[in-house]
Amino acid sequence: xxxxxxxxxxxxxxxxxxxxxxxxxxxxxxxxxxxxxxxxxxxxxxxxxxxxxxxxxxxxxxxxxxxxxxxxxxxxxxxxxxxxxxxxxxxxxxxxxxxxxxxxxxxxxxxxxxxxxxxxxxxxxxxxxxxxxxxxxxxxxxxxxxxxxxxxxxxxxxxxxxxxxxxxxxxxxxxxxxxxxxxxxxxxxxxxxxxxxxxxxxxxxxxxxxxxxxxxxxxxxxxxxxxxxxxxxxxxxxxxxxxxxxxxxxxxxxxxxxxxxxxxxxxxxxxxxxxxxxxxxxxxxxxxxxxxxxxxxxxxxxxxxxxxxxxxxxxxxxxxxxxxxxxxxxxxxxxxxxxxxxxxxxxxxxxxxxxxxxxxxxxxxxxxxxxxxxxxxx
Amino acid sequence: xxxxxxxxxxxxxxxxxxxxxxxxxxxxxxxxxxxxxxxxxxxxxxxxxxxxxxxxxxxxxxxxxxxxxxxxxxxxxxxxxxxxxxxxxxxxxxxxxxxxxxxxxxxxxxxxxxxxxxxxxxxxxxxxxxxxxxxxxxxxxxxxxxxxxxxxxxxxxxxxxxxxxxxxxxxxxxxxxxxxxxxxxxxxxxxxxxxxxxxxxxxxxxxxxxxxxxxxxxxxxxxxxxxxxxxxxxxxxxxxxxxxxxxxxxxxxxxxxxxxxxxxxxxxxxxxxxxxxxxxxxxxxxxxxxxxxxxxxxxxxxxxxxxxxxx
Lengths: 378, 311
Fold this sequence. Notes:
The complex is a heterodimer. By secondary structure, chain A is an alpha/beta fold. Chain A contains 14 helices and 13 strands. Chain A starts with a helix and ends with a helix. The model of chain A is unreliable at 13-38 (pLDDT under 50). Chain B has a domain at 96-261 and 292-298: Orthogonal Bundle (MetI-like fold), CATH 1.10.3720.10. Chain B has helices at 2-29, 43-52, 59-71, 86-121, 126-140, 143-157, 169-199, 202-209, 214-226, 228-251, 257-267, 270-298. In chain B, helix 4 (86-121) packs across helix 7, helix 4 (86-121) packs across helix 10 (228-251) and helix 4 (86-121) runs parallel beside helix 12. The model of chain B is unreliable at 307-311 (pLDDT under 50). Chain A binds chain B through residues 98, 100, 128-134, 137-138, 140, 142, 145-151, 159-160, 163-164, 195, 197, 208, 211, and chain B through 201-203, 205-213, 216, 220-221, 224-225, 298-301.
């Protein structure tokens, strides 16, 4: 990291939350000597801005409101983790950004999904294709099904660069070999001629990553990239992500429900629940100072080695029906701190710092007062 | 690969042997003989004829001599038409039947795949419904009914195509249409359903996320995977087309092998029955072998042979 970059980073953190120096250690390796190759730089250049994104699907059973007003920004070189349980809209959000929602039955409305200066929701399919795989790439959950079984790895790697960058056969092949080297696949030249079934699951995920990176995208959306892999391979793939980010400066949106993954590589976290982002903050803020009861519940439900004995603490209840989502806070029905207002009115955003924002009535001064009074009464 | 082909070849020989044996005994189980006719033949003449064609000998001797004729591929002359050998009949009839069959297969496969793919890409739209309605009709109408309707409408009433024989490309239109519609409809329905399934696969989504042009996604990514079930059913369809040619050749007065085959059975013309049956089955078995080869080409996961070290 150059002096200038450090200065920039410092400037950004000061600008946003005035947090202590410790909070800017985005590699998350407090107390350890950080290997130089894993250094990365988060700048204040905003490359993605999602504003009030709504996605609905018309089905025979009615209209599902899968995503109900999602807002977030992403900066260059940053890793944003979108966390939440199944069906909370994380994958739909990423597919909507990527332009992979079939319309109909899907329907997208927003106040803008800006990639740099362009609004992705206003682009034609043809214009979108010039961004897909070139500026924004996607990594899929299951490497066993994401690769076409009838085409060679080489063809699947090179078809993107051939089409988008007009590379010749030889150049494209060279590029493909470089990519396979980058993601750590031995004998790349021979491997290019092979088919997906000749690779293991972890190898295939590396290839999927190589395919996503071959056009040098600025944004990488990884939709549960490690869920289908076993734990040792997961760790390798996560390290690969860190390495690639350090080398290329790519921004990453990481969709996951695995808080272990988040703790390892995320800079910032957005917690989603029932189609809304209910809390966002940088990694430390979310892990050490969660404010939304759902976030707290989510963190509490992770099994811990350091607390001996004890049972797992699930969050009671089930997520709301997205065919008819509640008007108030969607978590109210499961929330131990629920108040009358929660079930009727959705809370406004409360900013706790430049990065830490939460949608919860408990943050309202009146509620705070009430809590203090109750505590005092006890 | 060489080993695989050799193995398959041996299997083919065994299959043909079984078919020939079955044909021989079934043929002799049917009452009547090639020498029977309405005319009253002198008994000595009859006996002499029987001796000439070796029909007076016990069945197992006859069987051996027929087997010999298959191995040497010399079936001798036809009993009904002694001026021609079976080999001559095959040489004359086969090229025409082959032409009819191959054109039919090409038309059925190409148009069936195009129709099915279009229906899948426009799922639940007008084109889809129209294509599938057409396919259901195509499957439901037997080819001999379709053939007569085509002759009546297109040849007799509207005078668009000649009604019979096999002399110019124009003559080929009606028989091919009559024979290809059924298989085409089956292929179209199969392609549509497997295409619909393939289009929901992750690797198609991934190709779209790569910004690949839709045309290339369909042709390069989806079609190849969608064609596997079509290849599977090709064997059955080939057999269907082959037997279909007998009927169609008869209706359109096409001088192919089918005519000799049907006539020979009616006449109990033993050498011709044996010759045509063995030839037809050898041809069909060879086509099925080609289908298996195509499998391996379409899907690299299917190995026709085991290399050392492969699992």
